[in-house]
Structure formats: structure tokens, C-alpha cells
Design a protein that fits this description.
The chain has 5 helices and no strands. It is mostly helical and 102 residues long.
């Protein structure tokens, strides 16, 4: 773990259109993801992974599209979360591993 301890990754995000609550949640998600990928304890790994997913869902529900651009009472945030979970489940079922590293 020497590499992770000696190096910092700075992530810059334009938060000009985000509320203070959205910014706090985004920071919390980043922190929790770092915890998930560095923890050595099984319980923390599972609980923190679930917490990351819960926080991502909360951020989707607070999104500009979901809160300000609702049309005809359509629950876009819920639909987006359900769609995301369907895709995640499909990828897990098909044992697809998505590599985003360039």
C-alpha cells in the first residue's frame, strides 16, 4: 500500500450549479469510495460498498433533472436508479467486467 499512502489524487469538479448539500454528498462519496478500495476488513468493505451505492442513489434523487425538470409527475430519479441497477445486475450476471482504465 505504499503507493496509495504517498500519493494524493486531486479531483476538480465545477460545482457552480450544485447546492451545498450536493457538494457535501459528492465529497462524502469520494471519501467513501477511497475507503472501499483501501479497507482491509471484510465487514467494512461490504458495508461501505452498500453505503456508496446508497449515497449515489441519493445524489441521483437530488439531481437537477430529477428535481427541477419533472414532467407529468414522472419519477425520473427512481427510474434512473432502477435502470442503473438493472444494468449493474445484468453485468454481474453475465460476468462482464468493465475496464475504464486507459
Amino acid at each position: 500500500m505504499g503507493f496509495g499512502k504517498s500519493k494524493k489524487v486531486l479531483i476538480e469538479v465545477d460545482a457552480s450549479e450544485m447546492s451545498a448539500a450536493q457538494v457535501r454528498l459528492l465529497k462524502s462519496i469520494n471519501s467513501m469510495i477511497a475507503h472501499v478500495i483501501t479497507t482491509d476488513e471484510e465487514g467494512e468493505f461490504f458495508e461501505s460498498s452498500a453505503e456508496v451505492m446508497r449515497m449515489c442513489a441519493a445524489l441521483i434523487k437530488q439531481s437537477h433533472f430529477a428535481t427541477d425538470l419533472q414532467f407529468n409527475g414522472i419519477p425520473y430519479a427512481d427510474q434512473a436508479i432502477e435502470y442503473s441497477m438493472d444494468i449493474l445486475t445484468e453485468n454481474m450476471t453475465n460476468a462482464k467486467v468493465v475496464q475504464y482504465d486507459n
